[in-house]
């Protein structure tokens, strides 16, 4: 523990609903519970689309509205993300001083926080943005997208900026060994080896009593056997895999007529990917002759309104923007047979850990972070069959349907054994206490570094300062300028 409570500021671009946002919220809670003073700064926060701790006063959130949009006609997302963070940084530096800054996702602000704020910075890497933008990882290899010359030219300075600003962080953390390996391979100029601090979860949140008479919970729970998928409605999350495997399971086991699939996750009508993904899932359910309902604790967005159906007992439930209580109820329900985690090459994946904390078997892809969190003796884990916490399989409907056949056929004793080892593993490695301890060590490490020295490269400093000044001074003129497009 630090010798004294520290003042810590978190900088995160969008406090919505997602794995990165959940990590930031839990990290802030963990340090706050250790006695540190914590503030969260963000360029976007919608009380109707966020985690409860950022809405109910548990955490101190500062929403600084930027003069820049998220994109221009659906393009230039990363450019505007940098500008929005520079605006956030300019506002932040005029406020009270902090002992350390915690930055994740975007590193643009790091040099300014160090030099102008005279403060050490911890940077948490979920995954390098240049790899997310330029391709996809398949079994650890980058499969590059075919992009035109203009897109390549546009990304070139953005990728350079990410590497050179990340390099200025005093301590760099990564969410998994997988991410740390990729970071070292694709950021060759950065000498630091990221320290792994696994995302943690609030174990006690899954030990609470659930009010199953609550109308919101009644709307999503059922006495029927349930397969559960928790992910944002994004194409890369590949929820289609769960839907196709579910249909294949039902065709192989006609006696499982009462089993259902719940596809739940964050849905933002501002994002074209979310809209398209939901459309594709609904169309797939229709083509597979699966009855479905689409519900949301919030008002159904206009673009999703045509999906609203009212089958009395649907085989598939699309749950948009679930509440914390709904998620907890689904995870703790004795009728939930397994958690289906569909993303391949996921950087870490907090949802499998949440499921293990509730004693639910996990079915996940055999790549990325879940290979570190989920124990599967068939996958080569150095463990016995009795210590299994889940199944790791290739992302094909056939392989997943095979695993689901094993899962639905588990005896009561086998299910209890998996539940015991899953809960134990979640508590030992992935609790909020374990994460808070790792983060506390990191901020103490930065404090022990002493005075912030001047940046080594004067040229880099000049370029960044110019960018900072342009973003700060041009801010008021951007909206009317964009109105002309």
Structural notes for this entry:
- The protein starts with 6 loop residues before the first strand and ends with a helix.
- It has 2 domains: 7-200 and 434-475, 3-Layer(aba) Sandwich (Rossmann fold), CATH 3.40.50.2000; 203-430, Glycogen Phosphorylase B (Rossmann fold, 3-Layer(aba) Sandwich), CATH 3.40.50.2000.
- The longest helix is centred in the N-terminal third of the chain and has 18 residues, at 149-166.
- The protein has a 7-stranded parallel beta sheet with strand order 3-2-1-4-5-8-9, sandwiched between helices. The chain has a 7-stranded parallel beta sheet with strand order 12-13-11-10-14-15-16, sandwiched between helices.
- The chain is built from 17 helices and 16 strands.
- It is an alpha/beta fold and 485 residues long.
- Helices cover 40% and strands 15% of the residues.
- It has helices at residues 19-33, 77-93, 110-115, 129-134, 149-166, 177-186, 215-218, 239-252, 272-287, 324-332, 350-357, 370-373, 397-408, 412-429, 432-447, 458-474, 478-482; strands spanning 7-12, 37-42, 60-63, 100-104, 120-125, 135-138, 141-144, 171-174, 195-196, 226-230, 260-265, 292-295, 316-320, 336-341, 362-365, 390-393.
- Strand 4 (100-104), helix 3 and strand 5 (120-125) form a beta-alpha-beta unit.
- InterPro entries: ALG2 (IPR027054), Glyco_trans_1 (IPR001296), Glyco_trans_4-like_N (IPR028098).
- It is an enzyme of class 2 (transferase).
- Mannosylates Man(2)GlcNAc(2)-dolichol diphosphate and Man(1)GlcNAc(2)-dolichol diphosphate to form Man(3)GlcNAc(2)-dolichol diphosphate.
């Amino acid at each position: 523990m630090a010798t004294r409570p520290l003042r810590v500021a978190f900088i995160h671009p969008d406090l919505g609903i997602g794995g990165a946002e959940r990590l930031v919220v839990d990290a802030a809670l963990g340090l706050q519970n250790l006695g540190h003073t914590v503030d969260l700064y963000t360029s976007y926060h919608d009380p109707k689309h966020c985690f409860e701790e950022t809405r109910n006063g548990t955490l101190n959130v500062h929403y600084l509205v930027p003069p820049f949009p998220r994109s221009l006609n659906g393009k230039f997302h990363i450019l505007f993300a940098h500008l929005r963070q520079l605006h956030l940084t300019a506002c932040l530096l005029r406020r009270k001083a902090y002992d350390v800054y915690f930055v994740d996702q975007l590193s643009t602000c790091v040099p300014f926080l160090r030099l102008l704020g005279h403060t050490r910075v911890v940077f948490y890497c979920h995954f390098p943005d240049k790899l997310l933008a330029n391709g996809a990882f398949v079994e650890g290899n980058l499969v590059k997208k075919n992009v035109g010359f203009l897109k390549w030219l546009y990304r070139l300075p953005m990728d350079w900026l990410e590497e050179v600003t990340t390099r200025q962080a005093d301590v760099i953390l990564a969410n998994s060994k997988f991410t740390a390996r990729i970071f070292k391979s694709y950021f060759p100029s950065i000498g630091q080896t990221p320290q792994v601090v696994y995302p943690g979860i609030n174990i006690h949140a899954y030990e609470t009593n659930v009010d199953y008479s609550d109308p919101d919970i009644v709307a999503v729970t059922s006495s029927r056997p349930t397969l559960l998928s928790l992910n944002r409605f994004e194409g890369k999350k590949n929820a289609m895999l769960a839907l196709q495997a579910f249909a294949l399971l039902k065709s192989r086991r006609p006696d499982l007529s009462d089993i259902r699939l719940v596809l739940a996750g964050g849905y933002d009508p501002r994002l074209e990917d979310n809209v398209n993904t939901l459309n594709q899932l609904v169309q797939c359910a229709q083509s597979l002759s699966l009855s479905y309902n689409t519900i949301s604790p919030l008002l159904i967005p206009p673009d999703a309104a045509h999906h609203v159906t009212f089958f009395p007992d649907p085989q598939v439930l699309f749950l948009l923007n679930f509440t914390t209580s709904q998620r907890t109820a689904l995870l703790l329900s004795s009728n939930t047979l397994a958690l289906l985690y569909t993303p391949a090459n996921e950087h870490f994946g907090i949802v499998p850990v949440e499921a293990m904390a509730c004693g639910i078997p996990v079915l996940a892809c055999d790549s990325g972070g879940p290979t570190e969190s989920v124990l599967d003796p068939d996958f080569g884990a150095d463990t016995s069959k009795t210590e299994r916490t889940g199944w790791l399989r290739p992302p094909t409907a056939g392989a997943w349907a095979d695993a689901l056949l094993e899962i639905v056929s588990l005896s009561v004793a086998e299910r209890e054994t998996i539940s015991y080892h899953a809960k134990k593993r979640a508590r030992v490695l992935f609790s909020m206490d374990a994460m808070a301890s790792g983060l506390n060590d990191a901020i103490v490490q930065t404090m022990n570094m002493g005075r912030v020295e001047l940046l080594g490269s004067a040229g880099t400093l000049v370029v960044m300062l110019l960018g900072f000044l342009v973003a700060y001074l041009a801010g008021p003129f951007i909206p009317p300028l964009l109105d002309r497009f």
